[in-house]
Amino acid sequence: MPLRWLLAVGMLAAVVLVAFASGKFPVAPGELWRAVAARLMGAESGLPAAVETVVWSIRLPRVAAGLLVGAALAAAGATYQGMFRNPLVSPDILGVSAGAGLGAVAAIYAGLPIVAVQALAFVGGLLAVGVVLAVAGLVRLHDPVLVLVLAGVAVGALLGAGISLVKILADPMAQLPTITFWLLGGLNAVTAADLLATAPALLAGLVPMALLRWRINLLGLPDEEALALGVAVGRLRLVLVAAATLATAAAVSLTGIIGWVGLVVPHVARLLVGPEFSRLLPASLLLGGGFLVATDTLARTVAPIEVPLGILTALVGAPFFLFLLARPGRQE
Fold this sequence. Notes:
It is a single chain. The chain is built from 14 helices and no strands. By secondary structure, the chain is mainly α. Helix 1 runs parallel beside helix 13 and helix 4 crosses helix 11 (233-255).
């Protein structure tokens, strides 16, 4: 097992190095090493100013944002799947991303600062998942897994209509291009200031999930058995929903809507380390960060123009979701 974790960390480090070196302005490994060594030692690197700017002002915030956002979305997806005992739920399926997106779009439309964008994104995501859970609790005539998924799809469609309405009302010359580009998702507009403003919210969502990862295993049991083992099921679910929603909303406010990470990555992690959540969550964090950084590297190198990140993640996630639906005899 330690060898497997070392291999995963090594692969993540390799993905990060490739991300720093690749792009329209390639940076040679030697130049990258000189830049990092000089920064650590507090000395001059002797590199051209353009190389220093690309490494520290453009790619460092972008790669760091990819790691944090990918880890947050993957952790939120794994947490939702664990506490709802449903392998098909994720921030996208439950409408959290759409709710956070509507809140953030409304804040952008109103010209509010980044803190307000984060706050409205969190409120929108929390309201969305609350409505989905309320509908699933009221409808008891059908399979609860099916009701939860369909309620999420319906609420997500309704919130998507709200986003479309804001786009219609937005100024077509000033606001609409920004909103449309933001909805496609991407890391190209992330600055160091944006990352510093959003990182506390991302970490505030990740920390409770990490601290409670052993207890999440007990939520896979029937509620009566979990209560008999001393777990306050209702309170634990409330804390985890708030933490996962906060992480998702903060990610959406920073990079826009990037779908499918919260669904695909936890399943890949489960195949590698099993369903035990104390192992599943760290694996999801590593794989989520690496997946988003690798996808972002492809987005800015695969074509002459940068491909929106949400498009590439959908190309991977949608077929994977169909595979999960069609897979016979699945026991997650």
